[in-house]
Design a protein that fits this description.
The complex is a heterodimer of chains A (about 190) and B (about 450). Chain A is built from 8 helices and 7 strands, in the order E-H-H-E-H-E-H-E-H-E-E-E-H-H-H. Chain A is an alpha/beta fold and about 190 residues long. Chain A has one domain: Alpha-Beta Barrel (Aconitase, domain 4), CATH 3.20.19.10. Chain B folds into 2 domains: about 290 residues, 2-Layer Sandwich (Aconitase, domain 3), CATH 3.30.499; about 170 residues, Aconitase, domain 3 (2-Layer Sandwich), CATH 3.30.499. Chain B has 17 helices and 19 strands. Classes of the chains: A alpha/beta (about 190), B alpha/beta (about 450).
Chain lengths: ~190, ~450
């Protein structure tokens, strides 16, 4: 997992609430056995028409969305299926952070495990972001703050362990493997 | 109950800075969410820590046509065929027990765990699939995980977890005639919302739940995730024990006696505090059908599409081709699906067959009946249920996830209404442009006969 320290980017706004992981990456693309290449099918059924052409009115297809690394989404993003392919697809497309007022549990976990930063904000901040698509934001992982264009700083929750993993680009498997003795002790006690 | 199971599996306690290391008793795996995890293990030179606690099956991307499962006709989608083959290779290389495509024990992962008796009270159970919550019906702590976490469990048999909060769903009184567990869980999701359970483990309790069969309890816990919950649980009792007593891989002899002693300790003490609670009066419920694009958009089969006015709601209705005020029972149905980890068990097939017996599908209706496992299929055939479906004009298939999600060739055509006993009515879930109406097996069968959404009580005797 690559280290993530700061993200500075314009936003793309998708105000829809309850965006489920079936929308983020439809099931028919899940037959891949690799982690790579899901970005081209990110939001496939919203992004392309039935002939496979980009829909001009879809947020990701607008010229100003190109190169944006921050997705501002409606409440309860990532609900439904546990497919980690949703986080992979967002990252493969180029997103480094997702902002919402509520994250579905499994999607939030999957995002953190891949270095895609889930930024939980209050309704007021969210409302401003929704009504200002393309706003230039700064996300600082170390201090867990989001900085708005006018310099306003908003804190977001990020527990110490997750922050450490993001900043150092380490995944949790190393930590779990280092607990081998404790796991063996547990196994012996519960045999 | 949740706290007891949690505490019993803590390897390293959580601190403000670090999550708990939680031991996992049973890891169920399938072909779609494991390949990248095995790749990671291979890359790091790691082995499986506990192959004895790991089981693999194939269900999501597998075909359900008999000629493709047993007749040597290749799987239609190349990438799905590769995925199936990849699981065979991974299982062989890492020493995991696999029920392959032709295995008589194969089925949907959440159907076979309980059927084998591997799902047991007090266990921690995970799978790279959100409907792992199903197993909570036995008083297990069971939840879905992503592929990275699948890798963690394969390598260490543990997960890093923060302790979730608890949420009691008290269901009082009896379900009226013709109203099922599926209707109850849809009503619960309608009440608490699709993110109402986020961060929580639900405990379904009350006399209504205690009176339910294990199949019904599994339907309830299965859809906990549709309310956003981490897991759903039901206290084990005499019904749970009777179910497991004859299951092939449940403990036997002295181990069974010891297990019973442990399981007795699990139920939540009277008066225990939950972080949240809600009460539902089952006696007030009627059959429920979804009309929108998430499971919380649900209405009584006797009702109409509500009005709400916000843009997201309108967008959902536009996708569904419905309008506020439209009578639910006038919505036409071209497609009917009976199956899935929600309603693909023997009792579900019996309930659908009871409604359908002696009737034909309405003109223009296509119906697919897909047993949840090969064992369910054999049991249904032994009772002649397959004949009921075939005589009505439905198709009878091999087990799998099938039309619950469009990745195995079983698809609903764009624009068609599909009344489905599955768990998700998301846009495109059953195929691009498909319009899914979630309902019970009884409602699905009644709707198949009429060719429109139909109250199953019109077909059930008093």
């Amino acid at each position: 997992m690559p280290a993530v320290k700061t993200i500075r980017s314009r936003t793309v706004v998708m105000p829809t609430s309850n965006i489920d992981t079936d929308q983020i990456i439809p099931a028919r693309f899940l037959t891949s056995t690799s982690r790579a290449g899901f970005g081209k099918n990110l939001f496939a059924d919203w992004r392309y028409d039935s002939a496979g052409n980009p829909r001009a009115d879809f947020a990701l297809n607008k010229p100003e969305a190109q190169g944006a690394q921050i997705l501002v989404a409606g409440r309860n993003i990532g609900c439904g299926s546990s497919r980690e392919h949703a986080a992979w697809a967002l990252q493969d497309f180029g997103f480094a952070a997702v902002i919402s007022t509520e994250f579905a549990d499994i999607f939030r976990t999957n995002s953190l495990k891949n270095g895609l930063v889930p930024v939980l904000v209050d309704e007021t901040t969210h409302g401003w972001l929704i009504s200002h698509p393309g706003a230039e934001l700064n996300i600082d992982v170390e201090s867990s703050t989001l900085t708005l264009p006018d310099g306003t700083r908003v804190n977001f929750p990020l527990e110490g362990f997750a922050r450490y993993c993001l900043l150092n680009g380490v995944d949790e498997l190393g930590y779990l493997l280092s607990q081998g003795n404790a796991i063996s002790t547990y196994e012996q006690r519960h045999r | 109950m949740f706290e007891k199971v949690w505490d019993d599996h803590v390897v390293v306690p959580e601190t403000p800075e670090t999550p708990a290391v939680l031991f996992i008793d049973l890891h169920l795996t399938h072909e779609v969410t494991t390949p990248q995890a095995y790749t990671e293990l291979r890359k790091r030179g790691l082995k499986l820590r506990r192959p004895d606690l790991t089981l693999a099956t194939m269900d999501h991307s597998t075909p359900t046509r008999t000629e493709q499962v047993f007749g040597g006709v290749p799987i239609a989608v190349d990438s799905a065929a590769r995925q199936v083959q990849q699981l065979e290779e991974n299982a062989r290389e890492f020493g995991v027990e696999l029920f392959n495509l032709q295995d008589s024990r194969r089925g949907i992962v959440h159907i076979i765990g309980p059927e084998l008796g591997l799902t047991q009270p007090g266990k921690t159970i995970v799978c790279g699939d959100s409907h792992t919550s199903t197993h909570g019906a036995f008083g297990a702590l069971a939840f879905g995980i992503g592929t990275t976490e699948v890798g963690h469990v394969l390598a260490t048999q543990c997960l890093l977890q923060r302790k979730p909060k608890t949420f009691a769903i008290n269901v009082i009184n009896k379900l009226p005639r013709g109203v099922t567990a599926k209707d109850l869980i849809l009503a619960i999701i309608g009440k608490i919302g699709v993110s109402g359970g986020t961060g929580h483990v639900l405990e379904f309790r009350g006399d209504c739940i205690s009176a339910m069969s294990m199949d019904e309890r599994m339907t309830i816990c299965n859809m906990s995730i549709e309310a956003g919950a981490r897991a759903g649980m039901i206290a084990p009792d005499a019904t749970t024990i009777a179910y497991l007593q004859t299951a092939p891989r449940a403990p036997k002899g002295d181990a069974w006696a010891a297990a019973l002693e442990r399981w007795k300790q699990l139920p939540t003490e009277p008066g225990a505090r939950f972080d949240r609670s809600v009460e539902i009066d089952a006696a007030t419920l009627v059959p429920m059908v979804t009309y929108g694009t998430h499971p919380g958009m649900v209405a009584p089969v006797t009702g109409s599409v509500p009005a709400q006015g916000d843009a997201v709601f309108e967008k959902a209705l536009a996708y569904m081709g419905l309008a506020a005020g439209q009578i639910i029972s006038e919505v036409p149905v071209q497609n009917v699906f009976v199956g899935s980890c929600t309603n693909g068990r023997l009792s579900d097939l019996r309930n659908a067959a009871r409604v359908l017996r002696g009737h034909k599908l309405a003109a223009g209706v296509k119906m697919l009946v897909v047993p949840g496992s090969q064992s369910v299929k054999r049991a249904a055939e032994a009772e002649g249920l397959d004949r009921v479906f075939l005589d009505a004009g439905a198709e009878w298939r091999e087990s799998g996830c099938s039309m619950c999600l469009g990745m195995n060739g079983d698809l609903v055509p764009s624009g068609h209404y599909s009344i489905s006993t599955s768990n998700r009515n998301f846009e495109g879930r059953q195929g691009v442009g498909a319009r899914t109406l979630l309902a019970s097996p009884e409602t699905a069968a009644a709707s198949a006969i009429r060719g429109r959404v139909t109250d199953p009580r019109e077909f059930t005797p008093n």
